[in-house]
UniProtKB/TrEMBL annotation:
Domain of life: Bacteria
Protein's organism: Pedobacter xixiisoli
Transmembrane helix is among the record's keywords: yes
Pfam families the record matches: SDF (PF00375)
Single Gene Ontology BP annotation: L-aspartate transmembrane transport
CC per GO annotation: plasma membrane
Principal subcellular localization: membrane
Alphabetized InterPro entries for the sequence: Na-dicarboxylate_symporter (IPR001991), Na-dicarboxylate_symporter_CS (IPR018107), Na:dicarbo_symporter_sf (IPR036458)
Name of this chain's protein: Aerobic C4-dicarboxylate transport protein
Coiled coil: none
Length: 416
């Protein structure tokens, strides 16, 4: 019975119970969604201040702005290379497996099709660029707008760093506030099994397994592609840097199960940051890479977007040329970043990309509505793993990781 006291065991049991309850008692889905939403909201209430303080402590605490700039540039280059790889893998597997072949495009019904197309205006790049700079910093925190918080946090941190010793008291104060926030996090995480149960019960109760009958091939293809990305690409990246992917996954297994149940990477973002610091990664690197990766290193989302485009092209019999697929890669590299931090960004980016391509009917979006929820867990898990790996790798490249501490905590014990 001692195992029942372990968090990841509790979450795993909650997920199984959620599937059972959702299947046999679909009417419970409304209440289940309430439980899941309350848990995610409890996490969201501390994400904005945690990200802001992490960015400030990561930059101002480093003391060397040139070093901070170097870490930031390394992070952005890494993000672009890896997300490009994710997009290419999604396209390659989609072309090979052909998940859209045999799907009847007549299954696209008028009403949901119109609803899907209604959000297809795409991304207004002028508005997006203007949106990066908040007109009200307090409002950015109130809305939880991650990109605006990052922008304000970077400016605040640079200004604080320029104060030198006079800014020490502010840094000390922020460190104390940070400890309070993580104490709140620890309290919230204790009820994560309830959130995981609610999220899974809602998904199964609302959409049911019948949804998977028509689009099961797409769902399987997506998860196989994600599996390949994690256990080939990310495995090799960590192997090259002298780390074990399996041990790292064992170290964050509780967080991954929480993401599986809640279908949200937000639910574990602060916890992942804390675990990486405990594992020996420098606070400066963790504070920069995790928050920025949360917006710009969405590997799972990149796989989903490229695979979805190939799927819809196959459904409607559109044969994409090599040039068109290269165009897809280029567009997704921009649009996937453009919708960072926007609620429902997956569909927004997909409709925006289809609008730019202008060769695949937007009505096909309706086909993805039902199955999308079943892929959101996979997207979130891949995103979390990708950002965790990025932080470890960049910490190693900057010599900002205590290897002995990492080996002891992660690779010898793999304990959560």
């Amino acid at each position: 019975m001692k195992y029942l006291k372990i968090l990841y065991v509790q979450v795993l049991i909650a997920i199984v119970l959620g599937v059972i309850v959702g299947h046999f008692f679909p009417g419970f889905s409304t209440t289940a969604k309430l439980l899941a939403d309350m848990f995610i909201n409890a996490i969201k209430m501390i994400i904005a201040p945690v990200i802001f303080i992490s960015i400030v402590l990561g930059i101002a605490g480093a003391g060397d702005l040139k070093k901070v700039g170097r870490v930031g540039i390394k992070g952005l280059i890494y993000f672009e290379i890896v997300t490009t790889g994710a997009i290419i893998i999604g396209l390659a597997v989609g072309n090979w497996v052909k998940p859209g072949s045999g799907v009847n495009s007549a299954a696209v019904q008028a009403q949901p099709a119109a609803k899907a197309a209604a959000s297809s205006q795409g991304i207004d790049w002028t508005e997006f660029i203007k949106h990066i700079v908040p007109d009200n910093a307090i409002a950015a925190f109130a809305k939880g707008d991650i990109i605006q918080i990052l922008f304000f946090g970077i400016l605040f941190a640079i200004a604080l760093a320029k104060m030198g010793e006079k800014g020490t008291s502010v840094i000390v104060g922020l460190e104390k506030i940070n400890k309070i926030l993580f104490n709140i996090l620890h309290m919230v995480i204790k009820v994560s099994p309830i959130g995981a149960f609610g999220g899974m019960a809602y998904t199964i109760g609302k959409f049911g397994f019948a949804t998977l009958a028509v689009l099961g091939k797409l769902l399987i293809t997506f998860y196989v592609t994600g599996f390949l990305f994690i256990f080939v690409v990310l495995y090799l990246i960590l192997k090259f840097n002298g780390f074990s992917l399996w041990k790292l996954l064992g170290y964050i297994k509780a967080e991954l199960l929480i993401v599986l149940g809640s279908s949200s990477s937000e639910a574990v973002l602060p916890n992942i940051m804390e675990k990486l610091e405990k594992a020996g990664c420098s606070r400066n690197v963790v504070g920069l890479i995790i928050p920025s990766g949360y917006s710009f290193n969405l590997d799972g989302t990149s796989i989903y977007l490229s695979l979805a485009i190939i799927f819809l092209a196959q459904v409607f019999g559109v044969n994409l040329t090599l040039g068109q697929e290269l165009t897809v890669i280029g567009i997704l590299l921009l649009t996937s970043k453009g919708a960072a931090g926007v609620t429902g960004s997956g569909f927004l980016v997909l409709t925006s990309t289809l609008t730019i391509l202008n060769i695949i009917p937007l009505e096909g979006m309706a086909l993805l509505v039902g199955v999308d929820r079943f892929m959101s867990e996979g997207r979130a898990i891949i995103n979390v793993i990708g950002n965790t790996v990025a932080t470890v790798v960049i910490s190693k490249s900057e010599k900002e990781i205590d290897i002995a501490q990492y080996k002891q905590l992660v690779e010898k014990t793999g304990a959560a």
